[in-house]
Amino acid sequence: MGETTVLLTTIIVIGLALTLDLLVGEPPNAAHPVAWLGQLIAPLDREWATSERGQRLVGFAIALVVPLVPAVVAGGLVLATSAVSPVVSGAVAGLVLFVTTSLRSLLELTEAVVSATECDDLETARTEIRGLVGRDTSTLSAAEIRSGAVESAGENLADGLVATLLPFTLLAPFSLPAAAAAAAWIKGVNTLDSMLGYPSKPHGTGSAYLDDLVMWLPARVTAIAIALAGADPRAVFRAREWARDPPSPNSGWPMATLACVLSVRLTKPGVYDLNTGAELPTGADGERAIIVVGRAAVVAALLAVVLAAVLTALAGSLEVIAR
Description:
By secondary structure, the chain is mainly alpha-helical. The protein has helices at residues 3-24, 33-41, 52-65, 68-82, 86-99, 104-118, 122-128, 142-171, 176-196, 205-214, 216-229, 235-239, 252-262, 283-322, and strands at 266-268, 272-274. It has one domain.
């Protein structure tokens, strides 16, 4: 397969996934592979040993094994369909990337929360934001609720798009089955962490550590994409002052960068406070956040295309050398 064909295939597959997300959004839970994975993980959330050390050991085993399940299924499907037709195989790879990404639903939910706060409908805002944050919102003001929505929009751009798009793009020029497997593996790691990775759950320690490891690069790439989307490249450098304040070693980067781009303060009361010299976001700031995050997704997609072009050329060069 020529370099041009490989590059076009990669671009078409990425385009298919992002177009499906734009048109369809999240599939219903009954048809969503990530929801199926959640059903597989749920029975694992229990006491496996009488000691905390035992729980942690089992948790590390869970973290190593469970994400391999979606990876093997996704990679196997793409590999199996490649025997039928490259077009079918590419379509399946696009579907894998589609179900492992989430952008439209993130922006729509953020919009719903911001709109509710602008209408002083805090009851609706508190209900809607449960899909974005896990904190207690019962005593939060409208501005603090907006802060939570904006923070989540930045953080989940990394989790819901860049984290799977990046490894997929890195591997697609060399092997579509491997690219699909990598995207599914990352989503498995993210899902496992979201369900088990809490300090109160020793059996989730391994999941939390693994998620911290795999999200290191996507979080920082997302911060760069947000800064570029906001036409403020230096926002990443200003964000360094607060990026390490959140307990997570990664989530602070996109959140703090978004705070600096918007010139707003983002806070989780009692946990962290980002860009402290600014005011909490207004309704207009929340609307701008949605626009910036949407543009950042476009920037990330363009960066993926450039990366695919570079790697395709590299793959072609390696093939020539091998001959």
